[in-house]
Amino acid sequence: MSSIKEQHLSEAEIHKFIGLIGLKRAAPGRYSALLVANLLGGALSGRQNPSTIVHEIELLEMGALGQFKAPIQNKRPPLKGLWHKHYLQDGLASIAMNVDKGLKRFGMPFFDQKIEEAKAAGETRYVDPTDIPALVDDIVSGNRQRLAEQQALSGEWIIFAKYEGQNYYLTIATHDKGTHQHVREQIEQVCCVEFPFLSQLLADAEES
User: How far from chain centre, in Å, is Cα 11?
Assistant: First the structure.
């Protein structure tokens, strides 16, 4: 919420922002002020394109997966009972996360191909400097495309609740479990006031 206040945006400007990014159209009446503040803060700082997150919300509303794995219900406190769906965070951190995942899952297909070609020719070959751009492209872009085709890209989290057959979009969060208690506190302070059913949903989850 501080990002909104620090920029001294009027209520009309905030509503305009919500309309411009498509959030009101995607989930009318089912998005929190906390989510809006996070999206606006990311946009004003230049750290995150809010349309990327809204696009994933639109896919959720359509029941489509896009390039990410299916939404997951959190099974452990402090976010137990809530759901999360991945979105692709802007910046190098997100690229690095998926490069690492791609390497673990697929290795380096271009490099493997070169080895097989050398074996077939009965030759000992070394990686030539001219091969480096293609090797890097395969590790970064090639593996990213392979992850996307398997709906296995990783990103940060859109946190939402399910209630009476609909999704209520609460906030965004990172994989870092050390931040999740703070996220839970924000949800209790803001989202539970906006959506009264949420307090009982969280209480029931803790008891289960």
Answer: 27
